[in-house]
Amino acid sequence: MTIHSFTSKVKEKENLSYEEMLLAAELIFHEETPKEAIAELLIALSNKGETTEEVAALAMVMKSYALPLNLTEGNYLDNCGTGGDGLQSFNISTTSAFVLAASDVSIVKHGNRKISSASGSSDVLHALGIHTDFTLGDSVEMLNKTGITFLHAPNVHPKLKRIGEVRRSIGKPTIFNMVGPLTNPAKLTTQLVGINRPEFVRNYADVLRILGRKRAVVVSGTQGMDEASLDQENTFALLENSEVKPFSVEIEALGLTPAPVSALRGGTPEENAIILRDLLSGKQSAYFDAVLLNAGLALFAYGKVSSVIDGVELARESILSGKALAKLEAVVEYSQSILKERAVR
Question: How many domains does the chain have?
Fold first, then answer.
């Protein structure tokens, strides 16, 4: 079948089966498939609304093309969100990653530069002094030395360059936002994922089940924010023992102060880097509480704690003890050491 046959079917508002989407995904990644044809299919899928099977199949194919990561067996967590919410919030999941690593969670964080936001995770890392030009060996060594590593998507997904050009030409979220968090080359057993579609939260947890996750939390916040927000408009699902169950949390019951999503707005990568450093230094704000909430959810997903409130308290201790800031400094130091090493070769 050609990519146009799949596009025609989707334009008729027909869903592709898992097997059909596997074939369509192979064509999307084929170098000879015209970019315009790829864009047409991605737009058609977006207009129709992607299904569990379509997202899972594309993720499976994309991950199959990722470069292998030579990690020892272990329990690794990613807390990468889908992006694409258009809310310009500061880098909550990237900040949370340092808090999680300081709480003795092995973090393999997947991320990219901005595509539909003001500051992607790779952008704010650069502003912090953490470059993204790592070899896979560097990334594994960083994890072994610091307990956390950042995988810049283009470094591990060589076929993404062409797709990135297509996505930028479309200029709005596509199914690739949905599959980004699902294609970490590390073998993940657990995950926290924020998505920009509240109506798809349970479906997304089902995608994680199909892809072999043992336990995970999926959240969509206010206005489709791809993080948990500090009001009561969050939609949650827990994947546990192959079952998907909705759950809820009360912000004030967690010892956090409710705030509108506008209070979490960020800015340029440089501005977000300042917010991140201040926060990890213990500065209290809505940003601080948002990181406690999202880190607490990740600790709960990981099984480090038995409740979200215990996760929030562990996250708070990781920041106020200085451990999270020390983790950031360790990663910056490692990143800079790699650059110095290359300069003297």
Answer: 2
